[in-house]
Amino acid sequence: MSDATAIRAAGTRAQEMIDALAAISADSDRLTRLYLTPEHKRAAELAGTWMEQAGLSVRMDAAGTMRGSLPPGRPGPSGNKSLLIGSHIDTVIDGGRYDGNLGVVVGLLAIEALKARGEALPFGIELLAFGDEEGVRYPITLTSSAVAAGVFDPAALDQSDRSGVTMREALTAFGGKPEALAGEAYQADSVLGYLEVHIEQGPVLERTGAPLGVVTAIASQSRHRIRIKGEAGHAGTVPMPMRRDALVAASELIVGIEAIARKDRKNSLVATVGEIEALPGASNVIPAEVRLSLDVRAATDEARRDAVATILSFARKTEAVRQVALTFETVLEKPVATCGPRMMAAIQEGASRVMGKPAQQLLSGAGHDGLSMAHLAEYGMMFVRCRGGISHNPAEFVTVDDMGAAVEGLVEAILALARQEAAR
User: Fold this and answer.
1) What is the tens place of the pLDDT at every residue in 26-44?
2) What CATH code is assigned to 4-219+336-423?
3) Is 389 helix (H, G, I), strand (E, B) or coil?
4) Whole-prediction pTM
5) N or C terminus of the chain: which is more exposed, having fewer CB within 10 Å?
6) Nearest-CA neighbor of 128 among 377, 335, 332?
7) How far, in Å, are 63, 212, 312 from residue 142 at the CA level?
């Protein structure tokens, strides 16, 4: 096991940096930091300042990602490749301070620790502070990492936020360059792999008493938009049997979605309706239209697709019984992204060294930037225990000791990769 004093010191510094980022918010009473907003820019600039202080070469790319670069310390058998380390600094609305942000902070502190110990690595390191993992402002996710991985769809630039501002307009106002996004992609032959440290956002590590875990894969996921059209009417004059109430139909569908998801425990299936809007939205008018979101995730692509098909079948039955018109649109699909064996082995070794026992392996039900980066190179992810498994919530919490363990675990994982390189 690693030195407890050093771990506590690293964790204390991590907490100070986390708190500094958490102070940058669009709201005075809660943490909200969305992509391409002034708050995002301030957070990115703060991360860039820290990178410069750590001796990295720093620049903000055309998508708003802050990149810090450290060259190889010695020649390596793979040439001048770089290990990419990163996470995101955007948040959900009224979010927690550790989600995403912890990965950037831990990455930076690990680089500082390696430099302080005089470790000469046979590869470079690039630290990435992505700006859009959550997909809150625009109806897409992973914009920043998709650009870095070379899988960004330029059509996304024409998507609008709720204020009608397109991503192209927002990116230009931010200081980014929509026309330069394609040129920001890393070349696959220049990348050793991608590593990310992230809070678990679940209760497994806490339940087993382990501060760190090794991710095996990121679950399959899809997002959908559902629109139900009924007929408006006077709340006091239309008899109940004659109503075509869109909100009642939507309610029936939501309960059905939950029942479908509960039936499949083997494949870690989950389904969530997180947004709902009833129109015209008056207390004395029967709802004429309802718009809702649907998020479906599972351990396999097949299980997710089967669940979506079952949900759609149930929706059609609800449509017929309730005499409404229903449209079902798929707006996002992400297949299962399996972690690379080399990166997993390095994280396994690093986490196990720090804990003094074998690290547990887990599936990630949440999506991460690794979904994009998997298109570029092998990726690996280290999970960090969070209290109660709570995330996307102000109550999100990680102890100082666990953050310090994550820093040391990442240091050891990077050194394990260096030993792998030396043995090639």
Assistant:
1) 999 999 999 999 999 999 9
2) 3.40.630.10
3) helix
4) 0.85
5) C
6) 377
7) 11, 24, 26
Q: Which residues of the chain have pLDDT under 50?
A: 1
Fold topology of 220-334: Alpha-Beta Plaits (3.30.70)
- Neighbour-count burial of 34, counting CB atoms closer than 10 A to its CB (0-12 exposed, 13-18 middle, 19+ buried): buried
pLDDT computed for residue 8 by the predictor: 94
Domains of the chain: which residue ranges?
4-219+336-423, 220-334
The predicted structure's pLDDT at residue 1: 47
- The span from the CA of 5 to the CA of 26, in Å, is 36
CA dihedral 401, 402, 403, 407 (to 10 degrees): 100
Asked if residue 86 lies in contact with residue 103, where contact means CB atoms within 8 angstroms, the answer is yes
pLDDT of residue 264: 87
Q: What SS3 class is residue 99?
A: coil
Whole-number Å distance between alpha carbons of 271 and 221: 10
Rounded to whole angstroms, the Cα distance separating 354 from 404 reads: 10
Q: What is the pLDDT of residue 2?
A: 59
The answer to whether the 4-219+336-423 and 220-334 domains have the same CATH topology is: no
Contact yes or no for 328/224 (Cβ under 8 A):
yes
Q: Which of 424, 359, 413 is nearest to 200 (CA)?
A: 359
Given this model, what pLDDT does residue 262 score? 96
Encoded amino acid at 220, one letter: S
In percent, the amount of the chain with pLDDT more than 90 equals 91
CA distance linking residue 18 with residue 404, whole number of Å: 13
Q: How far apart are CA 249 and CA 246, in angstroms?
A: 5
For 411, other C-beta atoms within 10 Å of its C-beta total 24
Q: Is 311 exposed, middle or buried (0-12, 13-18, 19+ CB in 10 A)?
A: buried
- Write phi, then psi, for 218 (nearest 5 degrees): -105, 130
Bridging pattern class, strands 220-229 and 276-279: unpaired
Write down the mean pLDDT value for the chain.
96
3-state helix, strand, coil split of the chain in percent (to 5) is: 40, 20, 35
> Residue 168 to residues 139, 193, 287, 316, 317: CA-CA distances in angstroms?
14, 30, 35, 37, 40
Q: What is the dihedral of CA 148, 161, 199, 31, to 10 degrees?
A: 130
Encoded tokens for 25: 């918010």
106: nearest Cα among 416, 367, 408, 413:
408
Q: What is the DSSP letter of 365?
A: -
